[in-house]
Design goal:
Number of helices: 5
Distance between the termini: 70 Å
Order of helices and strands: HHHHH
Helix content: over 70%
Shape: rod-shaped
Oligomer: single chain
Length: about 140
């Protein structure tokens, strides 16, 4: 084992056969020692250069990991939203049906107008951004 230089510390790293072979091949192509290649990777990794250079490689991996974590929650939220929409629609039509049963036929156009106005207000409300801090 070579002597340590002043200001340097030794580090032992265990690699798979494939990783070892890749570093050995890269070292031979660069006409450098495997230690020099390893130090270069460590320096680049610690400085962030390696990440910037390999963003195209890393982005799909990060996306896949995020999807695997978020997908179950997203499915649950989508399911709850769909159930809420079904319940809201059911309540709307039950309310309209009950009102129509008790409103005389002459006044039923007013019920339709009230329903249309309420629906427009609901749609407008859904298009606004809620700011819970101000209320």
């Amino acid at each position: 084992m070579p002597k340590l230089k002043v200001g340097r510390k030794a580090l032992t790293v265990l690699l798979t056969d494939e990783e070892y072979g890749q570093i050995k091949l890269l070292a031979s192509k660069k006409h450098a020692s495997m230690s020099e290649v390893g130090r270069g990777f460590l320096k680049k990794g610690l400085s962030g250069e390696l990440t910037q250079d390999n963003i195209e490689f890393l982005a799909p991996i990060v996306k896949e990991q995020l999807q695997s974590i978020l997908q179950p929650e997203m499915k649950r939220i989508i399911s709850l939203t769909a159930k809420t929409c079904i319940q809201a629609g059911t309540a709307t039509y039950l309310t309209a049906d009950a009102i129509l049963k008790f409103v005389p036929p002459v006044q039923r156009t007013e019920v339709q107008e009230s329903y249309t106005a309420a629906r427009k207000k609901a749609v407008a409300f859904m298009k606004t951004h809620l700011d819970d801090d101000k209320e």
